[in-house]
Amino acid sequence: MQQLEKVKHPPIQEQASSRAVNDCSKKCFHGFGTKVSEKKLCQPKFEFKALIGEGSYGKVHKALCERGCAVAIKSLKPDFKYLERELRNLRYLSESTHPNIIEYFGHFYELGDYHLVFELGDEDFDDFLDRIRSSLINEHLNNIIFQTLEILSYLSKMKIYHADFRFINMVYLRSSDAIKLIDFGYSKIDSDEGYADPLRDLSRLGSELGSLQLNMKHKVPNQEWFDASLRFIFASDVSSLLSDDSNWLIGITDQLKRIIALCAINDPSDRENVIGMRFGLTPRYRLDEL
């Protein structure tokens, strides 16, 4: 198990999330304090396990804290351009809880890297969908759309523009059947330059959902799948999307088709209405019961 060395800590102020617990039954703090305002240098101990993610700016490992709780640790270099902003936004989000936002516990600095400690997802949501998409039915789509619209509704309330809202930036937790948004490195709050309405990401969600149900239809990518996917990305008219049967999974409900089409078009005057349509998406089946 790794023992953190005492090092001169770079000038990032708050060290820990205000949230005291994760969903572990031990109510573990993972070595961090409980208040955002704490300035003391935390020296948690973690045993790094498997590499579960890697990108151009850092790596993500599964790790165990001293009490044996599994967490995800995202390791970033101090020169990562958006480090300060990501930490600020995570601290802001950690002041309240939401079942579809990944839980952030705190960060520590060791051997030249910043290590951000998060709740551990069971699987990347994009990979999970690749495995189960051939078994999905309308009631599963109801669940997926309900949860992703819940996320956008919450981001709108908090005035955080995620800026990279895709299934690849979500994880799935089987115990709670929860889809959780991760990776806030590019996100912006309303005082940042380049901030946009968080519901602007409805169009990105629409193209993701359109592509998902086309994958269910075609099973494997082909020219028809590719052409239809582009129509969801560049669509400018709801009726043209809805009227072309080649755009849709056979048997998909009219309600699902309309929500997906409205997301893809993303008329600014209709965004709140689209978000509210999630409450009509019933029944919703758990995604791990296929």
From TrEMBL:
<keyword id="KW-0067">ATP-binding</keyword>
<feature type="domain" description="Protein kinase">
    <location>
        <begin position="46"/>
        <end position="290"/>
    </location>
</feature>
<dbReference type="InterPro" id="IPR011009">
    <property type="entry name" value="Kinase-like_dom_sf"/>
</dbReference>
<dbReference type="InterPro" id="IPR000719">
    <property type="entry name" value="Prot_kinase_dom"/>
</dbReference>
<protein>
    <recommendedName>
        <fullName>Protein kinase domain-containing protein</fullName>
    </recommendedName>
</protein>
<dbReference type="GO" id="GO:0005524">
    <property type="term" value="F:ATP binding"/>
</dbReference>
<dbReference type="InterPro" id="IPR017441">
    <property type="entry name" value="Protein_kinase_ATP_BS"/>
</dbReference>
<dbReference type="Pfam" id="PF00069">
    <property type="entry name" value="Pkinase"/>
</dbReference>
<keyword id="KW-0547">Nucleotide-binding</keyword>
<feature type="binding site">
    <location>
        <position position="74"/>
    </location>
    <ligand>
        <name>ATP</name>
    </ligand>
</feature>
<dbReference type="GO" id="GO:0004672">
    <property type="term" value="F:protein kinase activity"/>
</dbReference>
